[in-house]
């Protein structure tokens, strides 16, 4: 409005919309314009398309508003002679400026002048952005804390800046009094549209969020560009800090190994943890072992990438993560920072998130397996959790998919079966009970083992068993008679029935073990 040729103009509508951004100036004399605009254009016209037709004028203005044009400049007298009241009302309703030239003006001179201004502003913006980026990169080389980046960014953008970390910790720049902080926390919790929110992604996961509050003015294109540069810088700094911390953790692996072997007292462990982080308060914990089956050898960097990713996920679920490696296994000692209640659901959710990510591009992993030991209330009992985690992981390779679980406490009968298998010939014990049925099925394909398992599971209900096996009752009666002849008519007596149920689970365990051994044998060959 302060440029040449605009000295004598009149704003007849949309006065409150004069703050709108102008990205380009466009001369238009056609009335069907919707497909010709990208938004933020200042339109110059003589009104040739509608002349004094009010309805066509309203349709033209509606298209401009819907396309988010910046404003409309009309040269009155040549073709259009007046502005209808309905047009002014529509423009005011949408805060859409209508500017009138009361005398002939050179549109070509206006477009040349404003386009030169816009191009020069754009060039200056690129220059300022490059200067900002260079200063930001220089700071990244010199600093270790994100606060300096936030202060530098806030000084540049001159708006209220808020940074959140792990969805809890908040940093306000410039600082605010407690009452104002609470107001902003409430706005963030309500996901208010009055804030511009930008996630800080690390290893594919949101680790922090940068929030800008544009109370004094609207964000422009330059603001959005420096926000993008700042978010990238924060991600680089946080990733670097995480990487350094992970390297320190690797250096402490010998101490961790002694911890897992039960060689440290509770006092020694507490002192060591206090030295690492004076604010750290653990409510017991659990050991989780991760077995990475690689289709190709990974580099150290790739391994660190995976550990950082897992650590980020597990910390979001309320655990302090200590990491060490043993042979090809990655061991996480997970100190619980929250109450014991719900620890299992939190960990289960975190492990599923890790399993659902495709790591092939970075690590060339064919599969991941997790074994979670018993939860312990005292930190010096982690060796007990480690021992059970190893057992849980070992059983992952043996059990069928439907029987698998991350958690040692879910394995129930399989823990007993595994113990029996270690100290005696489990096959002989199983065959002592089930040999007649197994041999009959092998000889006649009689499906007696399947029938026996379902009959026991249905508590001896013939109707329910027949329904689940999809057979008629007469067929089921015939099979049960065969089972009675082979195992004895007393096979449903409580003690014998309990033993048979146990032996069926053991038999399936042996079958799965045999299949795995055969598969590994062929693989080795």
From TrEMBL:
It comes from the Bacteria. Gene3D superfamilies: PucR C-terminal helix-turn-helix domain (1.10.10.2840). Residues 268-395 form the CdaR GGDEF-like domain. InterPro entries: CdaR-like_regulators (IPR051448), CdaR_GGDEF (IPR041522), PucR_C-HTH_dom (IPR025736), PucR_C-HTH_sf (IPR042070), PucR_dom (IPR012914). Residues 448-504 form the PucR C-terminal helix-turn-helix domain. Residues 2-118 form the Purine catabolism PurC-like domain. Coiled coil: none annotated. It holds the Pfam family GGDEF_2. PANTHER family: CARBOHYDRATE DIACID REGULATOR. Belongs to the CdaR family. This is PucR family transcriptional regulator.
């Amino acid at each position: 409005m302060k440029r040449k040729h605009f000295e004598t103009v009149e704003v007849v509508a949309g006065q409150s919309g004069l703050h709108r951004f102008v990205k380009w100036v466009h001369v238009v004399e056609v009335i069907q314009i919707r497909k010709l605009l990208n938004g933020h254009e200042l339109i110059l016209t003589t009104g040739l398309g509608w002349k004094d037709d009010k309805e066509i004028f309203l349709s033209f203005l509606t298209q401009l508003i819907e396309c988010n044009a910046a404003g409309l400049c009309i040269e009155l007298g040549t073709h259009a002679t007046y502005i209808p009241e309905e047009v002014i009302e529509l423009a005011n309703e949408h805060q859409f400026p209508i500017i009138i030239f009361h005398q002939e003006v050179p549109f070509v001179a206006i477009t040349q002048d404003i386009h030169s201004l816009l191009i020069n502003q754009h060039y200056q913006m690129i220059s300022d952005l490059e200067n900002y980026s260079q200063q930001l990169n220089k700071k990244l080389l010199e600093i270790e804390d994100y606060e300096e980046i936030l202060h530098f960014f806030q000084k540049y953008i001159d708006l209220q800046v808020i940074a959140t970390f792990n969805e809890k910790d908040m940093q306000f720049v410039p600082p605010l009094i407690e009452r104002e902080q609470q107001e902003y926390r409430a706005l963030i919790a309500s996901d208010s549209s009055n804030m511009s929110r930008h996630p800080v992604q690390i290893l594919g996961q949101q680790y922090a969020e940068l929030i800008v509050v544009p109370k004094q003015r609207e964000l422009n294109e330059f603001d959005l560009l420096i926000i993008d540069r700042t978010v990238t810088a924060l991600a680089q700094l946080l990733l670097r800090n995480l990487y350094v911390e992970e390297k320190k953790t690797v250096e402490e692996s010998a101490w961790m190994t002694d911890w897992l072997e039960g060689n440290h007292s509770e006092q020694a462990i507490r002192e060591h943890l206090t030295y690492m982080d004076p604010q750290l308060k653990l409510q017991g914990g659990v050991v989780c072992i991760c077995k990475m089956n690689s289709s190709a050898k990974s580099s150290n960097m790739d391994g660190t990438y995976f550990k950082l990713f897992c650590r980020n996920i597990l910390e979001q679920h309320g655990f302090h993560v200590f990491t060490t490696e043993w042979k090809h296994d990655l061991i996480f000692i997970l100190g619980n920072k929250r109450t014991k209640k719900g620890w299992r659901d939190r960990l289960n959710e975190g492990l599923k998130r890790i399993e659902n990510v495709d790591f092939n591009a970075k690590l060339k992993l064919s599969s991941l397996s997790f074994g979670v030991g018993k939860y312990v209330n005292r930190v010096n009992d982690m060796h007990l959790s480690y021992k059970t985690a190893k057992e849980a992981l070992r059983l992952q390779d043996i059990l069928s998919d439907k029987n698998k679980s991350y958690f040692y406490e879910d394995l129930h009968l399989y823990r007993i079966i595994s113990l029996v298998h270690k100290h005696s010939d489990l096959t002989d014990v199983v065959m002592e009970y089930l040999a007649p049925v197994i041999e009959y099925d092998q000889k006649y394909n009689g499906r007696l083992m399947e029938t026996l398992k379902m009959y026991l599971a249905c508590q001896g209900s013939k109707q329910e068993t027949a329904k689940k096996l999809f057979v008629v009752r007469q067929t089921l009666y015939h099979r049960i008679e065969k089972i009675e002849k082979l195992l004895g008519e007393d096979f449903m007596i409580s003690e014998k029935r309990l033993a048979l149920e146990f032996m069926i689970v053991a038999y399936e365990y042996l079958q799965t073990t045999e299949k795995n051994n055969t598969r590994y044998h062929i693989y080795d060959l």
